[in-house]
Amino acid sequence: MRLGxxxxxxxxxxxxxxxxxxxxxxNFGKNLVYFVTPSEVVTFxxxxxxRKIRVAGMVVQASLKVVPNTLKITFDLTxxxxxxxxxxxxxxxDLFKEGTGAVVEGFWDADGxxxxxxxxxxxxxxxxxxxxxxxxMTLPTKGIIKTLQVK
Amino acid sequence: MIVExxxxxxxxxxxxxxxxxxxxxxxxxxxxxxxxxVGQRAxxxxxxxxxVGMVAMxxxxxxxxxxxxxxxxxxxxxxxxxxxxxxxxxxHEGSLLLWAWILAFYSMAxxxxxWKTQPVVMPYLILMESIVLCGFLLxxxxxxxxxxxxxxxxxxxxxxxxxxxDPAMVVHPPLLYLGYVGLSIxxxxxxxxxxxxxxxxxxxxxxxxxxxxAWICLTxxxxxxxxxxxxxxxxxxxxxxxxxxxAAFMPWLVATAFLHSVMVQETRKMFxxxxxxxxxxxxxxxxxxxxxxxxxxxxxxxxxxADPGRGVFILGFVAFMLLLSFGTLILRSAKLKSSVTIESVxxxxxxxxxxxxxxxxxxxxxxxxxxxxxxxxxxxFNKVSVGPPYYNAVFxxxxxxxxxxxxxxxxxxxxxxxxxNIKELFGLPLxxxxxxxxxxxxxxxxxxxxxxxxxxxxxxxxxxxIDFRKIALFWGKRDRxxxxxxxxxxxxxxxxxxxxxxxxxxVLVMIVxxxxxxxxxxxxxxxxxxxxxxxxxxxxxxxxxxxxxEGVNWEGKEAxxxxxxxxxxxxxxxxxxxxxxxxxxxxxxxxxxxxxMGHLFVTIPEVSPDGTWARVRVLHNPxxxxxxxxxxxxxxxGFLNIFRRDRKRSVVxxxxxxxxxxxxxxxxxxxxxVAQRSES
Lengths: 151, 680
Known about the structure:
By secondary structure, chain A is an alpha+beta fold. Helix content of chain A is 30%, strand content 29%.
């Protein structure tokens, strides 16, 4: 009798744990988004077209174009070595502008354009995507002294 | 000069906190209470000295002393006074100082309040608190010193991040830290119980209010952060499963589980090791949360700086605390075999077990999602991120399960119950819930999760209402007063239970808000010129003008919208696009119109350079206010619980033998009986 109760508890616990574990496992892989650099994107084979990824890079100066009367903008994203064109539809964040670091989420397609629906920009002035830092790139730093001279 | 005084005060505080570590150890070794007293005095002085440090920093903010590097980085002479003070926790260094100050405050309070009543615990409490304090002061003084000066002194500051120039952001960090750090007190008591071997129910009872207070602050801090994100980021959502949000949410999950499971220990003397484990885990997660946010390894709004030295130090410190606490738990818990076992799957203790299980599954889910990307990066694999759908998929069933248990746990008797009893208890609520589900379906609610969650909410609401009504009538009749006063008298007799149930009501309200605002949000994004119109739900928005606007430290554009409902103008809304001139940052200011607990939410994320058109985002968030109102009710329940007056219980031991059926309240079991007897 005692064993029966214990089994009941153990059984219900395992049921919950396995159920939720399965749910978590199933959704985990599906929702992993990989970070890549523009250099990696340009080497993509067709099997990776259309898969959701994030690309980190710098928005190239003078590349930002607004498509009139739509919510579309286009710009180029670079990691120093390679540059990819990005077509974005939606509302870019406040801090998104040319010459700053940005992470774009979307997919690369056969047309050779990165289609994005989400841009993440960082508000730290000296922010740059970590991939680019690893690649040894540096930003023109605004030193304290320099700031003072401007004042 | 003042800043130097502050600096030296904090240096002295560090030395004193080291004394706070050493003195109780010597006291324990020599069995000399005087040393413990030395430790206590050291803690009190540490608090005073860190306060001096805080005041010195605030002084330099108010006197605009930009030769202090941190003040220079987070303030500006144009800032309103309110934000000048808040600048102190607008960056990394000051946040840590605030952390340490709150920790010192809690330590001092606990060491003074419990000095007489908990003499055995005291040396260990002082020891543990001093260790944590010591760690944080080392970090502040050597790796992120807010008192550091720069030369030559800049004329003006770089300005506080405009996104943080907001009332919600002024109170969000202090509240969150009050929550995080507050967990250190029950943690220290638990460690004291482990060290001293007094592993009974005492530490659980003493720390109950501390945990509750920390929990309330943590809840409020998280909700405040959500509210800020909601309108200040102009995003329209309040929760994005961002790693930093998760860092605050994880200790909350465990603290909530702990608040529930201690009740089992108090009543049934079970879950002893489990409770120790939970509180140690909760505080460890606070430390891990601080590590995640402050080390800069997460690139998000909250990570002010990425300094490897800090990261390594905090990681080392967290590892040390984890080893110390969990190591002690493992070594000491062997003698803690619970003499009582769960007798039935349908008993209150079993429900508590499932409650804890759900909370822990939730924790593991968030933990993996937050740390997996970091692990991948450290191991030099691909850099990845885990998307919100993962969390949502696991969380919705967990949340539904937890809410369902809220309708059962408080009413089902301890030990075991009969089928008849269950029918009596839950028959009516189940029928009402089913009815509510059918009604909602008829009224056009077709989303599966909305239907499921509202049905479960209806079930719990019915169960709570029936219980409240029953006890109100019972005590009303007994004391010969009306049911309302009867309810108050029931509250006086068993305040903890009623306060807990009020918190549950808050949760229900919040769930309704979350369900509707997330599943029934409607959105339109479009480009508008003055004169253009757009309609959303029952609203028509007409952009009247698009004009320039300016404030003390910003300039920008403002759009004026006339809002019509059924061709009648109901309000005007003025969303703005600001540009903060000092920090050179643009922000989007939201305009919100409240409508039946919901919000009409308008932003202009982009204005054309010539000012002729604006990109407009219009959102309708039904019932979104209930999220925060629910939080408010949860807080009220929590405070009622903290400030409750426990009645002296004259009869305790015999009560457990009596079956729950005779209880006056709907199976409130022992509690009800005890109340009844002590009355007679």
